[in-house]
Amino acid sequence: MTARDLTSSGVLVVDLDALARNYRLVRDTASPAECAAVVKANAYGLGVGPVARRLRAEGCRRFFVATAAEGMELRGLVQDADIHVLDGVTADTVETLTHFELTPVLNSLAQIERWKPTGRAALLHFDTGMSRLGIGAEEAEVLFTESARLSGLSIKYLMTHLACADEPDHALNREQLRRFAQLRELLPEVPVSIGNSAGAFLGADHCGDLVRTGIALYGGNPFIDRDLPLAPVVRLSGRILQLREVRSPVTVGYGATRTVAPPATLAIVGIGYADGYLRCLGNRASASVNGVRIPVVGRVSMDYLCVDVSALPAGTVHCGDSVELIGEHVSVDEIATAAGTISYEILTGLGARLQRVYQGKGHNGE
Ligand SMILES: *Cc1c(COP(=O)(O)O)cnc(C)c1O
Fold first, then answer.
1. pLDDT in tens, 317-329
2. Which of 24, 73, 163, 353 sits a CA distance of 20 to 30 A from 173?
3. pTM for the complete prediction?
4. 134 CB near ligand 1 (under 6 Å)
């Protein structure tokens, strides 16, 4: 017997059928824009292999990753797809990009010069208000006056990234679209890629010809105050390791931040912040057993957390039972809000110790 044969307490189930449903929803909503899948950071922590293969099987032909290393790994998983690398090209990565037929997103004049000799396709990224990667206003001006800088380059898309697409009424959205419309005049024939997950739901001007969708595929709602019919893709659960009957008042966990009065039943679950279930969720989040919501009480520790299962009928909870921390009854968005963060951070933070199980068509190379 090896460590691998022992099932861990924490299980992350990834529902590939739900992933496919979300992909079809975004694709149909953004249509006629094409829908590319953003699978950076190991597909937001869910596992790039099963995720990318399933999306490819669903007809997705374009993928975005953050780095050349991620692109290289993805090329080993999907051969007949375009793979775009968001951080562009450097002296260190130019060979990898060409060898694995990865398409960089060029973010500066220096990257344009670096890529040109390869004679291969690229995307051109303009920064219109994010002040992150991308060709800024000054460098764009140089391109307008010295158009020879672009000659010999095969530009597939002009791209920009909206800073506030999750807040549709934010004035910066309009302003970024206005700036981008001016920059497009540089290469008016070239199609454009604008929207992320949020943008995909905001109409043609926020989509462009190609949307770059990440979080919505994985079941996270990109909007703060708008519901979307997304299917939950991840189920994070842990097993009950011990039950405690409370017969006199007790404090729970480090710091004794919570006192529980009798009668109550507490369950210790084998999931902690080392698994990506954030410490700050203690005393704030809910979990679920058999669809019944129960509170997380006391501080979350590295390997364990405590839930109050008193709401469940006596005798129905046992050691070894599974407790849902994220899933159908407790959404990843709810957990993110309780933690004061966004679903992206929750998903990408899910720990390596969790056993990852894939459900639906496409797992095990089917
Ligand atoms: C991560 C990323 C995306 C995907 O964003 P979601 O909100 O997850 O859809 C799109 N474009 C760029 C440039 C990104 O960095």
1. 999 999 999 999 9
2. 24
3. 0.95
4. no
